[in-house]
Amino acid sequence: MSTHDHNDVVVHADGETTPARFENPGLHEHTPRQADVDPRVTKRVERQVLALFTASIIGTIVVVWAYFALPPGETASSMRTSNIVLGVGLAVCLLGIGIGGNYFIKVLMSNREYTEERHAQRSSDETREVAVQMLQDGAQDSGLTRRKALVGAGVTALALFPLSILVPLLGNVGSDWNVRKFKHTMWKKGMRLHTDPTNRPIRAADVTIGDVWHVIPEGLEELEHGKLDEKAKAVVLLVRLDPRDLRSDQSPEGETWSHDGIVAYSKICTHVGCPVALYEQQTHHLLCPCHQSTFDVADGCKVVFGPAKRPLPQLPITVDDEGYLVAQSDFTEPIGPTFWERATK
């Protein structure tokens, strides 16, 4: 409980007093910036902002040009070149607008504070005239009317920027959006496991406990079209453990999917599709370097840590009459990250 006394203070129940009202401290004293007092600094900043907006315009032009002139193609080098040019162009486009606009606002536009007493919602005609004049004065104070080159460059950069997104987006209209192709790979029954990148068949007797082999399907090099796409889906990591350490190497139907401690799992992380290839022999853990999802090779590559939600799909393997490792079938579930159609059937 509190009461007011004649000195316009509040007296609390515990005897403490506080002022009932506080004096308005007013606005802080304005400290002029260097650009406010030195015309040379102002001109230098104007040139810098103009250069940033111009860089943004050039970045947008580069993105549009690269989209048509540098298609990804079928080779790793062409994909890398296309992605680098598109990425750098888009970065310059966005950074030019962001840094240039921020620099313009903080250095060139007025930073004075203004206050206005609250009044009735419907102002008088005289007040409205004053408000319009204040807006005009504010525009004049901001320098927008005097810096037409900067305004033109900024508006042009903002107007062209959407092209860096719309051109690739509209260019992909009608493209192949069939996600069923991700449900199956080129692995099939009896297909031998080959080393990556030397492309040699793998004999089971050559794989010792603790070994880790990077594997591709037999016949991959013979493909004329789509070789990179098929490899991206079908890459496998082969590991040999002591059979006594395996806690899970069977299908849900009870079929054995390993051979004498040798297991094969998809290298494509079920989080966002990064290559999983860091194996720790002591714990039998497999680590994805992108976001640290960790899988237990000894227990069906189940997730033990990280953002991944599904185990790595296992490739059922066995040996043929010559002792070479072969696939029993394709993966029985889709590889890689989750998409909107997960079922394999």
UniProtKB/TrEMBL annotation:
Localization: Cell membrane
Membrane topology: Multi-pass membrane protein
Family: Belongs to the Rieske iron-sulfur protein family.
Keyword set, alphabetical order: 2Fe-2S, Cell membrane, Disulfide bond, Electron transport, Iron, Iron-sulfur, Membrane, Metal-binding, Oxidoreductase, Respiratory chain, Transmembrane, Transmembrane helix, Transport
Pfam annotation, one family: QcrA_N
Annotated region described as Disordered, given as residue ranges: 1-38
Segments traversing the membrane: 49-70, 82-105, 149-171
GO cellular component labels: plasma membrane
Biological role: Iron-sulfur subunit of the cytochrome bc1 complex, an essential component of the respiratory electron transport chain required for ATP synthesis. The bc1 complex catalyzes the oxidation of menaquinol and the reduction of cytochrome c in the respiratory chain. The bc1 complex operates through a Q-cycle mechanism that couples electron transfer to generation of the proton gradient that drives ATP synthesis.
Skewed-composition ranges (Basic and acidic residues): 1-15, 26-38
Listed InterPro entries: QcrA_N, Rieske_2Fe-2S, Rieske_2Fe-2S_sf, Rieske_Fe-S_prot
Protein's name according to its UniProt entry: Cytochrome bc1 complex Rieske iron-sulfur subunit
GO MF, any single term: oxidoreductase activity, acting on paired donors, with incorporation or reduction of molecular oxygen
Domain Rieske intervals: 233-326
